[in-house]
Design a protein that fits this description.
This protein is of the alpha/beta class and about 425 residues long. About 25% of the residues lie in helices and about 25% in strands. The protein folds into three domains: about 100 residues, Elongation Factor Tu (Ef-tu), domain 3 (Beta Barrel), CATH 2.40.30; about 120 residues, 3-Layer(aba) Sandwich (Rossmann fold), CATH 3.40.50; about 80 residues, Beta-grasp domain (Ubiquitin-like (UB roll)).
Protein backbone atom coordinates (compact mmCIF):
# COMPACT_ATOMS: atom_id res chain seq x y z
CA UNK A 1 0.00 0.00 0.00
CA UNK A 2 1.52 3.28 -1.06
CA UNK A 3 1.22 6.58 0.80
CA UNK A 4 -1.59 7.85 -1.45
CA UNK A 5 -3.77 4.81 -0.76
CA UNK A 6 -3.09 5.13 2.96
CA UNK A 7 -4.15 8.78 2.83
CA UNK A 8 -7.41 7.82 1.09
CA UNK A 9 -8.20 5.21 3.75
CA UNK A 10 -7.52 7.72 6.53
CA UNK A 11 -9.78 10.31 4.84
CA UNK A 12 -12.51 7.70 4.37
CA UNK A 13 -12.29 6.71 8.04
CA UNK A 14 -12.55 10.31 9.18
CA UNK A 15 -15.53 10.88 6.87
CA UNK A 16 -17.33 7.84 8.24
CA UNK A 17 -16.76 9.01 11.82
CA UNK A 18 -18.08 12.49 11.02
CA UNK A 19 -21.13 11.04 9.23
CA UNK A 20 -21.81 8.72 12.17
CA UNK A 21 -21.51 11.60 14.64
CA UNK A 22 -23.86 13.81 12.61
CA UNK A 23 -26.33 10.96 12.17
CA UNK A 24 -26.44 10.25 15.90
CA UNK A 25 -26.84 13.98 16.65
CA UNK A 26 -29.66 14.33 14.14
CA UNK A 27 -31.44 11.26 15.57
CA UNK A 28 -31.23 12.63 19.11
CA UNK A 29 -32.55 16.04 18.03
CA UNK A 30 -35.36 14.34 16.10
CA UNK A 31 -36.34 12.33 19.18
CA UNK A 32 -36.33 15.51 21.30
CA UNK A 33 -38.48 17.29 18.68
CA UNK A 34 -40.99 14.43 18.62
CA UNK A 35 -41.18 14.43 22.42
CA UNK A 36 -41.79 18.18 22.52
CA UNK A 37 -44.37 17.92 19.75
CA UNK A 38 -46.20 15.17 21.61
CA UNK A 39 -46.17 17.19 24.82
CA UNK A 40 -47.58 20.25 22.99
CA UNK A 41 -50.39 18.11 21.59
CA UNK A 42 -51.19 16.69 25.02
CA UNK A 43 -51.26 20.18 26.55
CA UNK A 44 -53.04 21.63 23.48
CA UNK A 45 -50.29 24.23 23.09
CA UNK A 46 -50.14 26.15 19.78
CA UNK A 47 -46.92 25.81 17.79
CA UNK A 48 -44.56 28.79 17.68
CA UNK A 49 -45.43 31.64 15.32
CA UNK A 50 -43.15 33.28 12.80
CA UNK A 51 -44.57 36.56 14.07
CA UNK A 52 -46.39 37.08 17.35
CA UNK A 53 -50.14 37.44 17.46
CA UNK A 54 -50.53 40.82 19.09
CA UNK A 55 -53.87 42.10 20.35
CA UNK A 56 -53.69 45.69 19.24
CA UNK A 57 -55.43 48.46 21.15
CA UNK A 58 -58.89 49.24 19.88
CA UNK A 59 -59.38 52.65 21.50
CA UNK A 60 -61.85 54.77 19.49
CA UNK A 61 -60.26 57.13 16.97
CA UNK A 62 -62.76 59.88 17.92
CA UNK A 63 -65.26 60.37 20.70
CA UNK A 64 -69.00 60.37 20.18
CA UNK A 65 -70.65 60.63 16.78
CA UNK A 66 -69.07 62.25 13.73
CA UNK A 67 -70.98 63.35 10.61
CA UNK A 68 -70.29 61.52 7.37
CA UNK A 69 -71.71 62.07 3.89
CA UNK A 70 -72.67 59.28 1.51
CA UNK A 71 -70.40 59.68 -1.52
CA UNK A 72 -71.52 56.59 -3.44
CA UNK A 73 -74.28 53.98 -3.20
CA UNK A 74 -73.68 50.75 -5.16
CA UNK A 75 -75.69 47.52 -5.33
CA UNK A 76 -73.43 44.49 -5.07
CA UNK A 77 -75.63 41.51 -6.06
CA UNK A 78 -78.01 40.49 -8.82
CA UNK A 79 -81.03 40.75 -6.51
CA UNK A 80 -80.08 44.29 -5.42
CA UNK A 81 -80.54 43.20 -1.83
CA UNK A 82 -77.02 44.21 -0.76
CA UNK A 83 -75.91 47.81 -1.10
CA UNK A 84 -72.50 49.33 -0.38
CA UNK A 85 -72.31 52.84 1.04
CA UNK A 86 -69.08 54.82 0.63
CA UNK A 87 -68.79 57.32 3.49
CA UNK A 88 -66.59 60.42 3.61
CA UNK A 89 -66.19 62.67 6.68
CA UNK A 90 -67.85 66.07 6.46
CA UNK A 91 -64.92 67.74 8.20
CA UNK A 92 -62.63 66.67 5.34
CA UNK A 93 -59.95 65.28 7.68
CA UNK A 94 -58.14 62.03 6.76
CA UNK A 95 -59.70 58.93 8.22
CA UNK A 96 -57.73 56.91 10.76
CA UNK A 97 -56.93 53.28 10.04
CA UNK A 98 -59.03 50.58 11.61
CA UNK A 99 -58.34 46.92 12.28
CA UNK A 100 -59.68 44.83 9.37
CA UNK A 101 -62.83 43.10 10.59
CA UNK A 102 -64.09 45.93 12.79
CA UNK A 103 -67.45 47.70 12.48
CA UNK A 104 -68.96 51.19 12.52
CA UNK A 105 -71.80 52.20 14.83
CA UNK A 106 -74.56 54.40 13.39
CA UNK A 107 -77.34 56.47 14.90
CA UNK A 108 -80.28 56.81 12.50
CA UNK A 109 -83.37 58.94 12.83
CA UNK A 110 -85.83 56.40 11.44
CA UNK A 111 -89.32 57.57 10.37
CA UNK A 112 -92.22 56.27 12.44
CA UNK A 113 -95.83 55.54 11.52
CA UNK A 114 -96.96 58.68 13.37
CA UNK A 115 -94.91 60.91 11.08
CA UNK A 116 -92.05 61.57 13.50
CA UNK A 117 -88.67 59.93 13.84
CA UNK A 118 -87.11 57.56 16.34
CA UNK A 119 -83.37 57.15 17.04
CA UNK A 120 -82.06 53.68 16.20
CA UNK A 121 -78.49 52.53 16.84
CA UNK A 122 -77.02 49.77 14.65
CA UNK A 123 -73.59 48.37 13.83
CA UNK A 124 -72.34 47.42 10.35
CA UNK A 125 -69.02 45.82 9.46
CA UNK A 126 -66.51 47.71 7.37
CA UNK A 127 -66.19 45.78 4.11
CA UNK A 128 -62.96 47.14 2.62
CA UNK A 129 -59.35 47.70 3.57
CA UNK A 130 -58.58 50.92 5.51
CA UNK A 131 -58.34 53.95 3.24
CA UNK A 132 -57.69 57.57 4.31
CA UNK A 133 -60.44 59.04 2.10
CA UNK A 134 -63.53 56.86 2.72
CA UNK A 135 -65.06 53.98 4.66
CA UNK A 136 -67.28 51.34 3.06
CA UNK A 137 -70.09 49.29 4.56
CA UNK A 138 -72.19 46.73 2.66
CA UNK A 139 -75.71 46.24 4.02
CA UNK A 140 -78.27 43.58 3.17
CA UNK A 141 -81.94 44.48 3.24
CA UNK A 142 -83.46 42.32 5.98
CA UNK A 143 -86.79 40.84 4.90
CA UNK A 144 -89.14 39.06 7.30
CA UNK A 145 -89.36 35.26 6.97
CA UNK A 146 -92.26 34.21 4.75
CA UNK A 147 -95.49 33.90 6.72
CA UNK A 148 -93.88 35.08 9.97
CA UNK A 149 -95.83 38.32 10.29
CA UNK A 150 -92.64 40.01 11.49
CA UNK A 151 -91.69 43.47 10.21
CA UNK A 152 -88.70 43.98 7.89
CA UNK A 153 -85.40 45.25 9.25
CA UNK A 154 -85.82 48.89 10.28
CA UNK A 155 -82.25 50.08 9.90
CA UNK A 156 -81.43 48.14 6.72
CA UNK A 157 -84.71 49.30 5.16
CA UNK A 158 -83.91 52.88 6.17
CA UNK A 159 -80.49 52.71 4.53
CA UNK A 160 -81.82 51.17 1.32
CA UNK A 161 -84.92 53.34 0.96
CA UNK A 162 -84.07 56.70 2.55
CA UNK A 163 -80.30 57.15 2.44
CA UNK A 164 -79.03 58.49 -0.90
CA UNK A 165 -75.86 60.08 -2.25
CA UNK A 166 -75.33 63.25 -0.23
CA UNK A 167 -77.21 62.02 2.87
CA UNK A 168 -75.63 62.78 6.26
CA UNK A 169 -75.09 59.99 8.77
CA UNK A 170 -73.90 60.01 12.39
CA UNK A 171 -71.07 57.54 12.88
CA UNK A 172 -69.03 56.38 15.85
CA UNK A 173 -65.38 55.41 15.38
CA UNK A 174 -64.50 51.86 14.24
CA UNK A 175 -64.59 49.32 17.03
CA UNK A 176 -64.85 45.63 17.79
CA UNK A 177 -62.57 42.80 18.89
CA UNK A 178 -63.11 40.61 15.81
CA UNK A 179 -60.18 41.53 13.58
CA UNK A 180 -57.38 39.77 11.77
CA UNK A 181 -53.95 39.32 13.33
CA UNK A 182 -50.86 40.78 11.72
CA UNK A 183 -48.68 37.68 11.80
CA UNK A 184 -47.67 35.82 8.65
CA UNK A 185 -49.44 32.61 9.68
CA UNK A 186 -51.69 31.20 6.92
CA UNK A 187 -55.30 32.28 7.34
CA UNK A 188 -58.69 30.78 6.49
CA UNK A 189 -61.64 33.18 6.13
CA UNK A 190 -65.11 31.59 6.20
CA UNK A 191 -68.18 33.67 5.36
CA UNK A 192 -71.84 32.82 4.99
CA UNK A 193 -74.22 35.21 3.23
CA UNK A 194 -73.81 38.83 4.32
CA UNK A 195 -71.41 37.61 7.03
CA UNK A 196 -68.68 37.89 4.42
CA UNK A 197 -68.45 41.68 4.90
CA UNK A 198 -65.77 41.78 7.66
CA UNK A 199 -63.89 39.01 5.85
CA UNK A 200 -63.74 41.15 2.69
CA UNK A 201 -62.00 43.79 4.77
CA UNK A 202 -59.54 41.18 6.07
CA UNK A 203 -58.85 39.70 2.62
CA UNK A 204 -58.32 43.07 0.92
CA UNK A 205 -55.99 44.20 3.71
CA UNK A 206 -53.96 40.98 3.61
CA UNK A 207 -53.51 41.05 -0.16
CA UNK A 208 -52.43 44.69 -0.02
CA UNK A 209 -50.23 44.66 3.07
CA UNK A 210 -49.06 41.02 3.26
CA UNK A 211 -48.77 39.89 -0.37
CA UNK A 212 -46.90 36.72 0.58
CA UNK A 213 -49.39 35.50 3.18
CA UNK A 214 -51.47 32.43 2.31
CA UNK A 215 -55.16 33.39 2.37
CA UNK A 216 -58.12 31.06 1.82
CA UNK A 217 -61.67 32.39 1.51
CA UNK A 218 -64.60 29.97 1.74
CA UNK A 219 -67.85 31.73 0.83
CA UNK A 220 -71.25 30.09 1.16
CA UNK A 221 -74.51 31.30 -0.44
CA UNK A 222 -77.46 29.60 -2.12
CA UNK A 223 -76.54 30.53 -5.70
CA UNK A 224 -75.01 33.17 -7.97
CA UNK A 225 -77.92 35.59 -7.51
CA UNK A 226 -77.01 35.95 -3.82
CA UNK A 227 -73.25 36.25 -4.27
CA UNK A 228 -72.00 39.76 -3.53
CA UNK A 229 -68.99 41.47 -5.12
CA UNK A 230 -68.65 38.49 -7.44
CA UNK A 231 -66.45 40.18 -10.05
CA UNK A 232 -64.16 41.65 -7.40
CA UNK A 233 -63.65 38.29 -5.67
CA UNK A 234 -62.86 36.45 -8.90
CA UNK A 235 -60.55 39.30 -9.90
CA UNK A 236 -58.62 39.01 -6.64
CA UNK A 237 -58.28 35.24 -7.10
CA UNK A 238 -56.96 35.72 -10.63
CA UNK A 239 -54.50 38.43 -9.60
CA UNK A 240 -53.06 36.82 -6.46
CA UNK A 241 -51.69 33.27 -6.49
CA UNK A 242 -51.67 33.19 -2.69
CA UNK A 243 -55.44 33.91 -2.53
CA UNK A 244 -57.53 30.75 -2.76
CA UNK A 245 -61.24 31.42 -3.35
CA UNK A 246 -63.65 28.54 -2.75
CA UNK A 247 -67.33 29.31 -3.41
CA UNK A 248 -70.02 26.98 -2.07
CA UNK A 249 -73.56 27.03 -3.53
CA UNK A 250 -76.13 25.10 -1.52
CA UNK A 251 -78.84 25.47 -4.19
CA UNK A 252 -77.29 26.35 -7.58
CA UNK A 253 -79.43 27.79 -10.36
CA UNK A 254 -79.70 25.86 -13.64
CA UNK A 255 -77.39 28.40 -15.28
CA UNK A 256 -74.74 28.16 -12.54
CA UNK A 257 -71.74 26.20 -13.82
CA UNK A 258 -69.54 24.14 -11.52
CA UNK A 259 -65.85 25.17 -11.42
CA UNK A 260 -66.74 28.45 -13.17
CA UNK A 261 -69.31 29.90 -10.75
CA UNK A 262 -68.69 27.69 -7.73
CA UNK A 263 -66.39 24.92 -6.52
CA UNK A 264 -68.62 23.00 -4.10
CA UNK A 265 -72.31 22.16 -4.23
CA UNK A 266 -72.84 22.25 -0.49
CA UNK A 267 -72.83 24.53 2.51
CA UNK A 268 -69.51 25.51 4.01
CA UNK A 269 -68.77 22.72 6.47
CA UNK A 270 -65.76 21.00 7.94
CA UNK A 271 -65.79 18.29 5.24
CA UNK A 272 -65.21 20.94 2.57
CA UNK A 273 -62.36 22.38 4.63
CA UNK A 274 -60.75 18.99 5.14
CA UNK A 275 -60.87 18.24 1.42
CA UNK A 276 -59.29 21.56 0.44
CA UNK A 277 -56.86 22.66 3.13
CA UNK A 278 -53.31 21.28 3.29
CA UNK A 279 -52.08 20.22 6.72
CA UNK A 280 -50.91 23.55 8.13
CA UNK A 281 -51.47 25.61 11.25
CA UNK A 282 -54.13 28.10 10.14
CA UNK A 283 -55.84 30.97 11.85
CA UNK A 284 -59.61 30.63 11.23
CA UNK A 285 -61.91 33.68 11.03
CA UNK A 286 -65.63 32.91 10.69
CA UNK A 287 -68.70 35.10 10.26
CA UNK A 288 -72.12 34.05 9.08
CA UNK A 289 -75.65 33.04 10.04
CA UNK A 290 -76.07 31.34 13.39
CA UNK A 291 -76.88 27.83 12.05
CA UNK A 292 -73.56 27.81 10.17
CA UNK A 293 -71.67 29.13 13.19
CA UNK A 294 -73.26 26.72 15.65
CA UNK A 295 -72.27 23.72 13.51
CA UNK A 296 -68.90 24.85 12.16
CA UNK A 297 -67.19 26.11 15.30
CA UNK A 298 -67.65 22.83 17.26
CA UNK A 299 -66.72 20.84 14.13
CA UNK A 300 -63.40 22.70 13.90
CA UNK A 301 -62.75 21.91 17.55
CA UNK A 302 -63.51 18.23 16.89
CA UNK A 303 -61.11 18.35 13.93
CA UNK A 304 -58.36 19.33 16.36
CA UNK A 305 -58.09 23.06 15.69
CA UNK A 306 -56.91 24.77 18.87
CA UNK A 307 -59.44 27.07 20.52
CA UNK A 308 -56.99 29.99 20.28
CA UNK A 309 -56.98 29.67 16.48
CA UNK A 310 -60.74 29.92 16.00
CA UNK A 311 -62.03 33.51 15.83
CA UNK A 312 -65.63 34.31 15.04
CA UNK A 313 -68.34 36.91 15.16
CA UNK A 314 -71.99 35.93 15.53
CA UNK A 315 -74.88 38.17 14.57
CA UNK A 316 -78.43 38.27 15.93
CA UNK A 317 -79.94 37.22 19.25
CA UNK A 318 -78.10 33.89 19.39
CA UNK A 319 -74.41 33.64 20.09
CA UNK A 320 -71.91 30.85 19.68
CA UNK A 321 -70.27 29.53 22.81
CA UNK A 322 -66.88 27.87 22.72
CA UNK A 323 -67.26 24.29 23.82
CA UNK A 324 -64.21 24.34 26.07
CA UNK A 325 -65.30 27.51 27.85
CA UNK A 326 -68.90 26.42 28.20
CA UNK A 327 -67.99 22.97 29.45
CA UNK A 328 -65.59 24.36 32.04
CA UNK A 329 -68.10 26.92 33.24
CA UNK A 330 -70.88 24.35 33.41
CA UNK A 331 -68.67 21.98 35.37
CA UNK A 332 -67.76 24.72 37.82
CA UNK A 333 -71.41 25.61 38.33
CA UNK A 334 -72.83 22.10 38.37
CA UNK A 335 -74.54 21.03 41.54
CA UNK A 336 -74.21 24.26 43.48
CA UNK A 337 -75.65 27.74 43.65
CA UNK A 338 -73.39 30.73 43.15
CA UNK A 339 -75.09 32.80 45.81
CA UNK A 340 -75.24 35.69 43.33
CA UNK A 341 -78.73 36.93 42.51
CA UNK A 342 -79.61 39.03 39.49
CA UNK A 343 -82.76 41.12 39.76
CA UNK A 344 -84.34 42.67 36.69
CA UNK A 345 -86.39 45.52 38.14
CA UNK A 346 -88.73 46.32 35.23
CA UNK A 347 -89.37 42.65 34.47
CA UNK A 348 -89.90 41.76 38.10
CA UNK A 349 -87.65 38.70 37.87
CA UNK A 350 -84.99 37.68 40.39
CA UNK A 351 -82.77 34.80 39.29
CA UNK A 352 -79.80 32.87 40.59
CA UNK A 353 -76.76 33.56 38.44
CA UNK A 354 -74.88 30.62 36.89
CA UNK A 355 -71.46 31.13 35.25
CA UNK A 356 -72.47 28.90 32.33
CA UNK A 357 -75.04 31.53 31.31
CA UNK A 358 -72.45 33.68 29.51
CA UNK A 359 -72.97 37.43 29.57
CA UNK A 360 -75.77 39.23 31.42
CA UNK A 361 -77.39 39.87 28.03
CA UNK A 362 -77.45 36.14 27.24
CA UNK A 363 -78.69 35.45 30.77
CA UNK A 364 -81.56 37.91 30.33
CA UNK A 365 -82.55 36.55 26.93
CA UNK A 366 -82.44 32.95 28.17
CA UNK A 367 -84.95 33.90 30.86
CA UNK A 368 -87.38 35.67 28.54
CA UNK A 369 -86.31 39.23 29.32
CA UNK A 370 -86.20 41.45 26.24
CA UNK A 371 -83.18 43.76 26.10
CA UNK A 372 -82.28 46.03 23.21
CA UNK A 373 -78.95 45.01 21.70
CA UNK A 374 -76.83 45.68 18.64
CA UNK A 375 -73.24 44.58 18.19
CA UNK A 376 -73.11 42.21 21.19
CA UNK A 377 -69.42 43.07 21.51
CA UNK A 378 -69.35 46.18 23.70
CA UNK A 379 -69.12 48.59 20.81
CA UNK A 380 -72.49 50.22 20.18
CA UNK A 381 -73.99 50.89 23.62
CA UNK A 382 -77.44 49.56 22.66
CA UNK A 383 -77.64 47.27 25.69
CA UNK A 384 -76.54 49.95 28.19
CA UNK A 385 -78.53 49.37 31.39
CA UNK A 386 -78.62 51.23 34.70
CA UNK A 387 -77.21 49.39 37.72
CA UNK A 388 -79.51 50.11 40.68
CA UNK A 389 -77.33 48.18 43.13
CA UNK A 390 -74.39 45.78 43.13
CA UNK A 391 -71.32 45.46 40.90
CA UNK A 392 -70.48 43.91 37.55
CA UNK A 393 -67.21 42.77 35.97
CA UNK A 394 -66.30 43.14 32.30
CA UNK A 395 -65.03 40.15 30.34
CA UNK A 396 -63.28 42.50 27.88
CA UNK A 397 -62.69 46.22 27.72
CA UNK A 398 -65.69 47.71 25.86
CA UNK A 399 -65.20 50.15 23.00
CA UNK A 400 -68.29 52.08 24.08
CA UNK A 401 -67.84 54.05 27.32
CA UNK A 402 -71.01 53.44 29.38
CA UNK A 403 -72.49 56.23 31.44
CA UNK A 404 -71.65 56.27 35.18
CA UNK A 405 -73.89 53.90 37.10
CA UNK A 406 -74.66 51.77 34.04
CA UNK A 407 -73.15 48.78 32.26
CA UNK A 408 -73.11 47.03 28.89
CA UNK A 409 -74.92 43.74 29.42
CA UNK A 410 -73.35 42.04 26.39
CA UNK A 411 -69.80 42.02 27.80
CA UNK A 412 -70.23 41.83 31.56
CA UNK A 413 -71.30 39.44 34.30
CA UNK A 414 -72.25 40.07 37.93
CA UNK A 415 -69.45 40.45 40.46
CA UNK A 416 -71.94 40.59 43.34
CA UNK A 417 -75.68 40.29 43.56
CA UNK A 418 -77.01 43.03 41.32
CA UNK A 419 -80.24 44.84 40.49
CA UNK A 420 -80.61 46.02 36.90
CA UNK A 421 -83.13 48.41 35.40
CA UNK A 422 -84.39 45.95 32.77
Amino acid sequence: MNSFSLLLWIALGISLQVALYLGIGFWRHWQDYQALKGRDQELNLPPPQLAPLVEEPVAPAWQGFRFFRVERKVFEDALQSVCSFYLVPEDGLPLPDFLPGQFLTFRFDVPTASGGTEPVIRCYSLSDTPRPEAYRISVKRVLPPAGSGLPPGRSSGFLHDHVEVGSRLQVRAPGGHFHIDRSDAPVVLIGGGIGITPLLSMANWCLGEQPGREVWLFYGVRNSREMILRAQLHGLAAAHSNFKLRVCFSDPLPEDVATRDYQHRSRVDVNVLRMQLPLKTYQFYICGPNPMMESLVPALEDWGVADARIHFEAFGPASVKRRTTTTAAAAAAAGNETGIMVKFAKSGKELNWQPAAGSLLEFAEANGIAVNSGCRAGGCGSCQTTIQSGEVAYRQVPDFDPEPGSCLLCVCSPKTSVTLEA
